[in-house]
Design brief:
The structure is a homodimer. By secondary structure, chain A is α/β, with parallel strands linked by helices. Chain A has helices at about 15-20, 25-35, 40-55, 60-65, 85-100, 115-125, 140-150, 170-185, 200-215, 230-240, 255-265, 300-315; strands at about 70-80, 100-110, 130-135, 155, 165-170, 190-195, 225, 250, 275-280, 295, 325, 330. The first copy, chain A, has three domains: about 15-60, lambda repressor-like DNA-binding domains (434 Repressor (Amino-terminal Domain), Orthogonal Bundle); about 70-170 and about 300-325, Response regulator (Rossmann fold), CATH 3.40.50.2300; about 170-300, Rossmann fold (3-Layer(aba) Sandwich), CATH 3.40.50.2300. Chain A is about 45% helix and about 15% strand. In chain A, the strands form two sheets. A six-stranded parallel sheet of chain A has the order 2-1-3-4-5-11, with helices on both faces. In chain A, strands 7-6-8-9-10-12 form a six-stranded mixed sheet, with helices on both faces. In chain A, helix 1 packs across helix 2 (about 25-35), helix 5 packs across helix 12 (about 300-315) and helix 8 (about 170-185) packs parallel to helix 9. The longest helix of chain A has 17 residues, at about 300-315. Chains A and B meet through helix 4, helix 5, strand 2, helix 6 and helix 10 of A and helix 4, helix 5, strand 2, helix 6 and helix 10 of B. Chain B binds a DNA duplex through helix 2 and helix 4.
Chain lengths: ~350, ~350
DNA sequence: TGCGCAGATGATAGCGCTCCCACCTGCCGG
DNA sequence: CCGGCAGGTGGGAGCGCTATCATCTGCGCA
């Protein structure tokens, strides 16, 4: 550090430097750059010229320290590469960028309360103005409660216990679309391989599936559960393939669906001839693996944008009432589903 | 803001508060928390107790402003969900976290110089101590040169023009493993669907493939090019499938490989009976799609760790000489490759 | 016995910005 | 004609922390 206040070589220009060059005060520079209304056009122009000339860039740390506002939001995600979370994160990033916000990501290796807590704390330390939780909040600790109280937080998994705002794809609808599609093809009933129960996404799908079957007076088969990985789909497929009257399966994610299909294949049951399979997500490979997968496409980009929009509103007015928002998924029919064969 | 220096309700506790409770000076608190050696164990304990009692959390903005060090590194990635980049990012995140660094991600929608420039500037504004570029630097602008001069930067794509340090998977080896595997199965020669030329990953694979063929005196078929997407693999597959003497194809990514396989399938050429296909990456689905894919696994986690380790060393001593580092991929043989049929 | 040095602690001065308030123009109405 | 009021501007005072230097202890050694 240096005693002299005069400009130094090797130090980036500060607001004072801009002020000097523009012939105004540092204060005016601040206002001009912040888009404050009470600044003459002429003055603003002078400031901008000086900024250009010096190659001035704002010092974010100073701004945050002084104002408490960071223009940054945080996203908590699970440290894995499931397609859905990746796609969602991208949607959020793009939307945040457009809103002039930076995104700070904190990943957690597990869904433990303490792990999520620590991810949220890391974000809080970075003075984020809001958070988006892309993981299910299984248990809301005192610490988390305090954080969500202090920092506007929304969750895109819609944890049922939380005190946070919720944005979500209508997963129940996704499940209903899939299940009804299979019934429409003439199948007696539809089996289901669900995601982990901790995820609301997973349990909403399960509920939607069950609702359709019950509404139609069909037998509701026991539900199987995976962990989103292809491998868990495979394990469940090995079970399903051994049950003779299984002819239609709704799987809670595309990656698991391919695992299921592989297992069925190995057991000699053909898809879609013997068994129809529907997934969820519409990953890039869904169309190109064999057989191409009938699935329910999720509008992840839209979803990210909606989450950010919601959060912005929440940040602007923390007291405003907000009802949960949701976007609609859509069915994409491909080759993994076929009409039930006459018995 | 407030005139009084005494504690206020509703304001989080600061270092001065901790100092008061612990009965030491703010300075000592700073040193104790920074792990400075010249602090008595007893004093440190008192400080930690006070921290605990007050629920004190450091103010990062203030630390950055004052010290210039942010304990944050930045990562520039492309705004897509290709498996490789996602996996790599996770490797980086984990390693950085272990090193006590936060990760700030900046995504860019395109590979334009200006887009990458702006992503790097955004990171610079956040006072990152170092950057990892996970995108190819096609053209190094004056601005970028200035940035890489000011902030330690390494690239994991190994752009040939850049003035940055390089960490990479040995892609040439990956290609040689794949190509040799196919030749060993008795195929006359091997065709290649490459990634975009702008990516060094892609061109290294192409070179490795070519080197093996030339070394063995085989015919080097013309090279096809995709954009990493399954769809581009499909397009190229539609071409390859129409060429009668194609019996083995090395594809630069798993996602493209499945696209190729699908196209071949549609043209009535069986994999692996008629044509063997090898991919690169070993994505989670490689084992579960049909046929399961022979591929070259990339050690992304290791790679991320290596990149971070390199960057840490670079940050610690920007002048230290560092040779490019690389990690080794490994071949995973599955069902998409088979011995060439006797002609 | 005393000097000096090293280890432990404290005091002070910023880091670059934004807030609050005072100021200074010019113009309106009384 | 002058007080007042509004829009524009400038002047300080911090924001919470760390760097630098000063200070203060205790101890070894001559």
């Amino acid at each position: 550090m240096d005693k002299h206040t005069t400009r130094e070589a090797g130090r980036p220009p500060g607001m004072t430097d801009v002020a000097r060059v523009a012939g105004v005060s540092a204060q005016t520079v601040s206002r001009a750059l912040a888009g404050h209304p009470n600044v003459q056009e002429k003055t603003r122009a002078k400031v901008l010229a000086a900024v250009e000339q010096l190659g001035y860039r704002k010092n974010n740390a100073a701004r945050v320290l002084s104002s408490g506002r960071s223009r940054t939001i945080g996203v908590v995600t699970l440290q894995t590469s499931f397609y859905s979370r990746t796609a969602l994160t991208h949607g959020i990033e793009r939307a945040a960028q457009e809103a002039g916000y930076a995104v700070s990501a904190a990943t957690t290796a597990s869904l433990d309360t303490s792990a999520i807590e620590s991810a949220m704390l890391r974000l809080a330390d970075q003075h984020v103005e809001g958070m988006i939780l892309a993981v299910p909040l299984i248990h809301v600790s005192r610490q988390i409660e305090q954080l969500t109280g202090a920092v506007p937080t929304i969750t895109v998994d819609g944890s049922r216990t939380s005190a946070t705002e919720v944005v979500a794809v209508d997963q129940s609808l996704a499940a209903r679309l899939a299940t009804r599609h299979l019934l429409d093809l003439g199948h007696e009933t539809v089996w289901h391989v669900a995601g982990p129960r901790a995820w609301l996404d997973a349990s909403s799908r399960s509920q939607g599936w069950r609702a359709v079957l019950e509404g139609e007076g069909r037998v509701v088969p026991p539900e199987l559960e995976g962990d989103w990985s292809p491998e868990s789909g495979y394990r469940n497929g090995l079970i399903l393939g051994r049950i003779p009257d299984v002819t239609a399966v709704f799987v809670a994610s595309d990656e698991m669906a391919f695992g299921v299909i592989r297992a069925l294949h190995e057991l000699g049951r053909r898809v879609p001839d013997d068994i129809s399979v529907v997934g969820v997500d519409d990953i890039a490979l869904a169309e190109y693996c064999s057989p191409s997968l009938t699935t329910v496409a999720q509008p992840f980009a839209e979803m990210g944008a909606l989450a950010v929009a919601h959060l912005m509103r929440y940040i602007a007015d923390p007291d405003a009432a907000m009802e949960p928002a949701s976007v609609e998924p859509s069915l994409v029919v491909r080759a993994s589903t076929a009409p039930a064969r006459r018995v």
